[in-house]
Give the backbone structure.
Amino acid sequence: MTTLEEKKAFLKLPIEERRAIMAEQADELKSHYDEIMEEEQGIEYGQRCTVCNTLDRFNYFVPDEQWAIIVPEEYRNGHVCLNCLDDLADEKDMFWEALSIYFAGKRGNVCVTDEKMAFMDSVDNLKTALHYLILR
Ligand SMILES: [Zn+2]
C-alpha cells in the first residue's frame, strides 16, 4: 500500500528516476500477469488425469454403468485419460464405448459423436421442436 507521503516523495523525484521506477513496476506486473496466464491456460487447455497425471486435452462420455465398473472408486470423481481408461478396462477384461469424444485445444476443437448419441440428440431436438410448435 502506498501512503500519501510516499506518493508525494515519488513526485519530487527527477523524471528519469520516476520513469525507471515505473518501468520496474511494469516489468513486475507483466511477469505476475504471465504467471497467471500460464496457470489459467493449464486449466483451460487440458485437465490432469487422476491416474497417470498427464495433461490431457481429450474429454469423452462413456455410459455410467461402464464407468462404475471400469474406473476404481478413488479415480471416479476426477478425469481419467483415454489411455488409462483403456488400460483399466483391459485389467478388468471389460470393453468400453465412448458415446462422444471431444478435443479442446489451443487452436482448435473437435467433437466426435457416436451415431446413437447423434440419433438421441436429434430425437430430443425433434421433441423440443414439437413441444415448441404445440405451445405456439
Ligand atoms: Zn491417464
Q: What stands out?
A: Residues 49, 51-52, 54, 81, 83-84 surround zinc ion (CB under 6 Å). Strands lie at 47-48, 55-56, 58-61, 100-104, 109-113.
